[in-house]
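== Sequence and structure of one protein ==
=== Format: two labelled lines per protein ===
==== Data for this protein ====
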Amino acid sequence: MSEESNRSPDNLIPLCEEHAFEIDATPEHFPAELLREWKRAQLEEHLQLGKSWPLSDAEAAEVAVESFDYHSIGRATAGANIVLSVARQVGLLIETGRLERRVPERAALAWRELREQVNRSMPVFDAHGERLVVEPSFVETEPRRVALEEALAQAVARLEPIAAQAVAELHAVIAAEQRLAPWCSWVERAIREVITAAGRWPGRPPLEDDDVWPNSLAELSRASQALMARWRGEKAPEPPAPTAPETPPAETAEQRAVREHEELLERARPWARVDHRAYDADLCRELMDAAAGVVLLPDIPSLLATGLDATARLAARVARNSDDRTFDELIDQAAARQPLAVAVTLLRNMMLVARDAGRPELDSKAAARAGDILIAQTWRDVDVWKANRTHARKLLSWTASITSDEAVRTKLASAVGQRPEILPSALLAMAQWIEERDIIAFSHVVGIHCEIKDLPAWFATEAFATAIRQSLAHVNAADEDDSARYSDDVDRLASRVLWLADNATENCGG
């Protein structure tokens, strides 16, 4: 045959590749006449089928419309794309998280190595010979702490955009395939747990990493795989029930009192910022009433903004623009307040506000009333020491400034000599309050305690030392460190007074 005849349609018979190759490889088994017979059979079958199912284009279109739900197909196609996008985003989140975790790991290791180095170079032992753990200085640890915190923050910052994209895709999946909503919610919860775990490192100083981070990644992977399986129609684990949010504990009476006091001070603070606000009688009365509720708060840094002096100062500021008669009446009301610390602190602040406002008569009256109250106090009543415990030193210092150190010493010597039962309360009232802060997180207050580090010139040291030796014979003089052996506060403070009294005598003798 010519090439043209060989390639003509008349010489064509459609066959599968396997059998076409077999015919070409063994032509002796497939003579030309046999192949022509096959071709004729193919053509007859085609014609027969064509005659038995004649369809116009319109009929074919109608069949197609009835046979296929194009909306469902489109939704399924879109859903498939979104589900696959979720899988990619989850995979990217997990792998990025693993890489980012290396940075805080190195920062935590550097901090631990610093501690180990300090403990190797500075061995410290207790009285029983047991080795103690030594913490590096704040100057040494602070850069390590900052490095760790920054590394954790950086990891969260890198992961959050990926997490946000994954969550957005999950919401799109729910829109396309409502049946997948429970599994999408599971994945979303797991994503949020990963972000939380990425910003956390156990312990300060840092410990070895715990299971929280790897467990969060494992849970996210498990949730994502379950979502994919459910989408494919395969058997998938049921999503765990969401953890119920923790119910905050009920507010205690003490917490409520603190909150309400802070809210009161916040309402009054605008009067402290400017001088032109009008007098508010109700607010002033509330503040004067509230002063008694905070009188036992010690003057430590963390309480200065809410304590007695802050409350009294705001009361005086609110009263600033009252008329003379009203301000005069407020001075009398303040002088009648109990306990002594409330009355005197209110009066002193009203004195300062009147002085600042250029009202000398009211300034003098407030100062005089405060002085009269202080001078009249004998300090022989146990209840007076108890009620003014955290402000007694300040009150007595003010009294000494009005009279003299000698006058106050005489008054206190007479009080403890005639009423030795005041001794325990007086010792507690003479203590100075100390605020303890975390060595690493300095802004965090870990506790407060009281000490007697020194005694004012107006204190009747010898009279109190004599009373201690008579009433607390088991207590010996002790310095600041040695006095810690006394577990009872009164005994511990008494030992300090004896020690200060002995040293004052020695210094005078020298």
Observations:
- The CA atoms of residues 70 and 76 lie 10 Å apart.
- The chain has four domains: 12-53, 71-231, 261-376, 382-510.
